[in-house]
Amino acid sequence: MSLELTDLRLTYADGDSTLVALDDVSLTVRPGELVAVVGPSGSGKSSLLAVAGTLLRPGSGRVVIGGTDASRLGDRERTALRRQRVGIVFQQANLISSLTALEQLQVMDHMRGGRSGKAADLLRAVGLDGRENRRPHQLSGGERQRVNIARALMSDPAVLLVDEPTSALDHARGTEVMRLLAELTGERAVATLLVTHDVAQIGHAHRVTEMDDGRLSERQPGLTPGVPASSRPGGR
Ligand code: ADP
Ligand code: MG
């Protein structure tokens, strides 16, 4: 199930004037595809994710998640769509300090009033074997980010939205997290949209687009540094 964004426009009130945060943005992310949007701070990346994740309504344009047009839904239905189909990895992990890694994920089950039993499997999938019972302060920054990612996958989302996942990590740890995201995207056939200001960390993306002042433009293929052929669609 794809994420389809069409002609999105979003403005914020800025004193007497309006600030155009998203200016005619269109982008499709297919299942199993990791698309990275790179752009400087303030270019509209987090706004794009908020709209794609139905947390913000665009001024105009359409957000279609797995075939469902969110623009046609009321607030309750949008919330339901988000819970069922969208996983969001915010920049800050927002883990609960008193809970273990396993419990951070199990909370998602409790909120849905069920027990999926998926938490332990997901922690293994993100490489946290043996870390299940650690609390956030007993985990490294990279490990906390992995918990954050695993938690976003608890609902088996069709769409995964990721905001600056490497900003708090050193380069090597950041690269590992990006590789993990690319792997999970393929294995779970999720449509992943990731935004970052860090051009050095987009090597594992299948496709890269640039954002500047609320506008998207396709990046020239030759400009993507260090893309391993194996992580390109059709590359393996
Ligand atoms: P990025 O994530 O690329 O740094 P943002 O989407 O956070 O960009 O912000 C895009 C622009 O919109 C910036 O100029 C920012 O100051 C402005 N902005 C973001 N959120 C709000 C808001 N809630 N109200 C007013 N302006 C905002
Ligand atoms: Mg941002």
From TrEMBL:
PROSITE patterns: ABC_TRANSPORTER_1, ABC_TRANSPORTER_2
Ranges where the record places region Disordered: 210-236
GO molecular function terms noted in the UniProt entry: ATP binding; ATP hydrolysis activity; transmembrane transporter activity
Annotated CDD domains: ABC_MJ0796_LolCDE_FtsE
ABC transporter domain residues: 3-236
One cellular component term from this protein's GO annotations in UniProt: plasma membrane
Keywords annotated in UniProt: ATP-binding, Nucleotide-binding, Transport
Keyword Protein biosynthesis among UniProt keywords: no
Name the record gives this protein: ABC transporter domain-containing protein
